[in-house]
Amino acid sequence: MTGDQPREIAVLGGGLAGLSLVLQLLDHGVKARITVVEPRHTYTDDRTWCFWDTEDHPFRHLIADRWPTWRVHDGTRAHRCTGTCAYARLSAGDVYAHALARIARAPNVHLWRGTRVQRLDGRRVQTDAGTLAADLVYDGRPPRLPETASGTRLLQQFVGRRIRSDRDVFDTSACELMDFRLPQRHGIAFLYVLPHSPREALVEATVFAATRLPAGRLDGLLDDALAQRLPSGVETLGSERGAIPMVPNLGERASGPGVIPIGTRAGAPRGSTGYAFLPIQRHSRALAARAARGTPGPVRMRGRITDWLDRVFLARLIARPDAAPDDFGRLFAGVPADRLVRFLMERGGPLDHLAVMTALPTGAFLRHAAAVSLPRALRPHPRQRAPVADADPDSPVPRS
Ligand SMILES: Cc1cc2nc3c(=O)[nH]c(=O)nc-3n(C[C@H](O)[C@H](O)[C@H](O)COP(=O)(O)OP(=O)(O)OC[C@H]3O[C@@H](n4cnc5c(N)ncnc54)[C@H](O)[C@@H]3O)c2cc1C
After folding, report:
1. Which parts of the sequence are annotated with region: Disordered (predicted)?
2. Domain containing 172: what range?
3. Does residue 334 sit in the same domain as residue 268?
4. Which of 47, 59, 161, 222 to mutate to test the pocket of ligand 1 (most atoms within 8 A of CB)?
């Protein structure tokens, strides 16, 4: 079905989701006037995006590092995995620069920097620089998250430092995804190390916890870990920090007709891992395709089976945080690397899902699975079809 393309589009928030969507709208030939409302005056290199390099997207050519091998230390043993797709790193600074340059060349896109949305009244966007009346609103403002998580959610909190050593200390052939040799008393804690060169790396301390940790606790964890691993001659080049919600099916419903949530607000961070970069790319592409056809509307962030598996994994992490190092160790040791990567990047098929489920302690997995209601796709005699399209349906993607 095709219809009329929208004429006036407002994108609230020029973060990853807002900028990715604008590039997709341009690539899909959407001619509407597009206004992006963004409080920042200037963009800085404020974060690092990592994911497995499984597919194409508008920022792929900017990937700065690729590691064909990754390591996980479960506290007792180290596991080393090599897959077909490398683990990839993108600098936010490069992503922003590329998107802003394209926006500057597009006569129909206007970026209102230094402007904050104050209120959304239907499709009327009230900002501190005036009111915008749009046919279509994509809302990428950060969602409000409770300070204390309820029994079904965690907060992934991390602080990272870009450091330089005066000696060769990093093995650039592999990155360290999770090293659980950190004190586990504040939550599920691990170190994450992305080496750019033998002397430079991003080193992050991450904790999955139900509550927000007091300021300084993560820094303390990171300080201690750095002091143990790199006793002297270390210079800090920069830092980043964040808190990513680990909530199954976080996505907000559209607040009204013609208002479509995007990014974190639409549930991009995966409930059991927090990975959001590739889901945002797929979601943006699917939303833009709908707008270009003249049938703009919401798109589910991911399939129902993935949502269900996330609930089960999250239930396990919440119920048995002490078992997390061993659970992750089993996954990385027991599931063939390519299968696990497809599962983690939401590109898995039934055999990949099965391999992941059977790598975990079966009794525990079944207990948590029984406590989480089945996705509609698995229930007998579904009565209703999903009202929205899927950005990433559960069917596996064709693989070469
Ligand atoms: C430090 C950090 C590292 C991350 N690393 C990874 C990673 O390695 N891999 C991965 O998959 N995911 C990662 N994530 C998770 C996720 O990919 C990012 O959070 C991503 O930026 C989410 O995109 P977004 O557009 O939803 O949010 P953002 O990029 O945060 O964009 C939200 C935008 O809304 C704007 N805004 C706020 N208030 C208003 C307002 N009132 N009016 C208008 N605009 C407003 C903000 O200025 C911002 O530009 C990371 C997150 C953080 C914080």
Report:
1. 377-400
2. 154-245
3. no
4. 47
Q: What is the pLDDT of residues 46-62, one digit of tens each?
A: 999 999 999 999 999 99
What is the C-alpha separation between 263 and 382, in angstroms, rounded?
A: 29
The verdict on 261 and 344 lying in the same domain is no
CA of 16 to the centre of ligand 1 (A): 6
| Arithmetic mean of pLDDT, 303-324 | 91
Domain shared by 199 and 295, yes or no: no
Q: Which residues line ligand 1 (CB under 6 A)?
A: 12-18, 37-40, 47-51, 116-117, 140-142, 240, 242, 244, 263-264, 268-269, 275-277, 280
User: Rounded distance, CA 2 to CA 28, Å?
Assistant: 14
Are 239 and 254 within one domain? no
Give the Cα separation of 306 and 319 in Å (integer).
20
- In whole angstroms, give the CA distance from residue 345 to residue 328: 16
The answer to the question of residue 386 being in a domain is: yes
